[in-house]
């Protein structure tokens, strides 16, 4: 095996982006476009554009985008813009669920015998994917899930053991890790996905029991945000204007 081939089996060069959701909580922004086509205020670029730029910067050369709701709007944007990697789109004729959507899209990956990344179409993030892929390979995992620690949207109160208030903490980090919607999958994982349904309720629990599912914590300070609501758009724009962290 050549050195390039060895790296290809550690650092994926192909990815699937799930972009078929209706984004009902983002209405009216999603009345005339799919969720990944919503622009982050101040950037002039839809979420999918930021994702493709990030994937390309991490060595991905081929991406398959799974479309559904208003697929033609997304396809038109892809065709009319210069992209940093090769993109193929597939359209679900009927909702297959996240697991079924992944399997359907993965069938169009150009190198089925190599590992691949996957990401939800509403994630705006920047962290070292290659490091996540190395973490995945070191553990011999079949699948690896990126884990984030989001900030709690409320202020927290710290007390001592006697109930005295010690401090007020504005939007502290959650004590729990959550699924960040970014994955590394080994080639055999594709066949384990359901034809229809949610892999997080079927495939992932099975792999967890077999100790074949790994969790990679996104490095502290790396930017991550799920764009679910109009408030998320506002917060993302504010973070960009204040810190420039999401560039």
From TrEMBL:
CDD domains tied to this protein: NTP_transferase
Coiled-coil annotated residue ranges, if any: none
UniProt-listed InterPro entries: Mannose-1P_guanyltransferase, NTP_transferase_dom, Nucleotide-diphossugar_trans
High-level lineage: Bacteria, Bacillati, Actinomycetota, Actinomycetes, Kitasatosporales
Pfam families: NTP_transferase (PF00483)
Source organism of the structure: Streptomyces macrosporus
UniProt superkingdom: Bacteria
Domain Nucleotidyl transferase: 15-241
Name the UniProt record assigns to this protein: Nucleotidyltransferase family protein
């Amino acid at each position: 095996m050549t050195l390039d081939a060895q790296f290809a089996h550690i650092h994926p060069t192909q990815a699937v982006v799930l972009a078929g959701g209706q984004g009902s909580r983002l209405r009216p922004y999603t009345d005339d476009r799919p969720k990944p086509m919503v622009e982050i205020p101040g950037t002039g670029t839809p979420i999918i554009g930021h994702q493709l730029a990030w994937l390309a910067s991490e060595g991905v050369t081929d991406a398959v985008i799974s479309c559904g709701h208003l697929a033609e709007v997304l396809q038109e944007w892809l065709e009319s813009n210069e992209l940093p990697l090769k993109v193929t789109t597939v359209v679900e004729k009927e909702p297959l669920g996240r697991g079924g959507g992944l399997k359907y899209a993965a069938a169009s990956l150009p190198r089925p015998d190599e590992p691949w990344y996957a990401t939800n179409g509403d994630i705006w993030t920047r962290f070292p994917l290659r490091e996540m892929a190395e973490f995945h390979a070191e553990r011999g995992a079949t699948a690896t899930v990126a884990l984030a620690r989001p900030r709690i949207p409320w202020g927290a109160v710290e007390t001592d053991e006697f109930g005295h208030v010690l401090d007020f903490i504005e939007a502290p980090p959650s004590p729990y890790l959550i699924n960040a919607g970014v994955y590394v999958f080994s080639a055999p994982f594709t066949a384990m996905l359901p034809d229809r349904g949610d892999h997080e309720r079927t495939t992932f629990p099975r792999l967890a029991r077999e100790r074949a599912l790994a969790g990679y914590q996104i490095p502290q300070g790396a930017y991550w945000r799920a764009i679910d609501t109009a408030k998320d758009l506002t917060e993302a724009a504010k973070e960009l204007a204040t810190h420039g962290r999401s560039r």
